[in-house]
Amino acid sequence: MGNMKLKFSEKMSSFLKNSGWLIGERVFQMIFSLVIGAITARYLGPANYGVINYGMSYVVIVGVVCSLGLDSIVIREIISEPKKSGEIMGTVMVMRLVTSIVSIVILFIFIRAIEPNNVVLQWVCLLESISLIFKMYEIIDLWFQSKLKSKYSVIAKCIATFSVGVWKILLVVNNASVEWFALSVTIEAMICFVFIGILYLRNREYKFIFKLSIAKRLIKMSYHLLLASLMVVIYTRIDKIMLGIYMSEESVGIFSAAVAIADLWIFIPLAVINSARPIIIESKSIDKETYEKRITQVYALVIYMGIFASLAISIFAKLGVTILYGKDYIKAVPPLLIIVWGSIFSILGAAREVWIVCENHNKYLKYFAGMGALMNVLLNLLLIKPFGIIGVAIATLISQFVVAIIAPAFFKDVRVSLKHMFNALCLKGVFERK
């Protein structure tokens, strides 16, 4: 019993340190990126800032396909079979490389087809999409997460963030065109790839090896998560695409400013979720009571962080938009007041994914996200013309609520997750000692 308590204490210590590194990274990135992002947005103006975000929406959707929905599964596999880490990671990296190259080509052809006269958008999408190749570093990042050693990837990401910040300042000083700013995404991914790769080589336990049998097994396990992730990114990104199609690139820029401020707090719960994931996965096979308590604790953190952050952002919305982005973006305030509350439901969904993977209920994720995507598209079609950006914000909020709360109620196997969330909201069992 004493050994178990000691082991748990060591795990919690590693968890807290790992979370500290992740939160520290996000604080640095938030402050630095917020300042640089605001300077960039002011320089580009709503229209060009909209082009950057419009193109990035397509790239993010394609990027989900490249990720293959494997994040939680890779961590679980590495924890359960540590001696096969090299084979698992090597296989996934080859899979990511192939899908990235194919996706870049398909995306460029697609943009050329739907926007044949918008050469600037074509170049922006191409330059941003090249980042998909270098984002293979995310696989190594998952290995660091599984070992609760995120400090290594944090160091690399902070170096990349700082470097790209300096790059953007130089672009502003030299009156660079919007295409050069689009290249920033790829430069940041490339720097992360190089530094995280170097740090992994200094800490690695096994060499990368590709195995077709592992690739087949991982695809079989992950396609539910892939479809779910694709649906999620559609209902979270389709708003900008539809704004670009039905309104203007300027409206995309204004809405993007609102989203950037609304998401300021998200880095904290995401860091907690990423650090808690290995502990929750491991506790599943050890003790059911502890396992369910950990899940409820994560939900509670997400809910109350979200309420506090959303209230704070709502109170200072107008002041924040004016200071950061200037009067050209003042129309971002009304949608900001709406979408900031949807962020809570979005993060609850991310937290529940850990439980979904542990319980092997992956197949339901695509149904949740599919319902959200369908709801978002339909609401956007109904609301975007009469209400503009505000209509898009309402559609986003309702869709996120549907995915997090309404959709799981339709499926018996996952309905218990709503009970965990309700217990978390009431703080039931969150502070009890086992």
Quick structural overview:
With 434 residues, this protein is mainly α. It has helices at residues 2-67, 71-80, 85-114, 119-129, 131-134, 137-146, 151-173, 178-203, 212-246, 249-262, 267-284, 288-315, 317-325, 333-358, 363-387, 389-406, 416-425. Helix content is 84%, strand content 0%.
Report on this structure.
The protein is an all-alpha fold. The chain has one domain. 84% of the residues lie in helices and 0% in strands. The protein has helices at residues 2-67, 71-80, 85-114, 119-129, 131-134, 137-146, 151-173, 178-203, 212-246, 249-262, 267-284, 288-315, 317-325, 333-358, 363-387, 389-406, 416-425. The model is unreliable at 4-8 (pLDDT under 50).
Produce the secondary structure layout.
Elements lengths: L1 H66 L3 H10 L4 H30 L4 H11 L1 H4 L2 H10 L4 H23 L4 H26 L8 H35 L2 H14 L4 H18 L3 H28 L1 H9 L7 H26 L4 H25 L1 H18 L9 H10 L9
Helix pairs in contact: 1-3, 1-4, 1-7, 1-8, 1-9, 1-10, 1-11, 2-6, 2-11, 3-4, 3-9, 4-8, 6-8, 7-8, 9-10, 9-15, 9-16, 10-14, 11-12, 11-14, 12-14, 12-17, 14-16, 15-16
Membrane topology: Multi-pass membrane protein
GO cellular component, one term: membrane
Keywords: Membrane, Transmembrane, Transmembrane helix
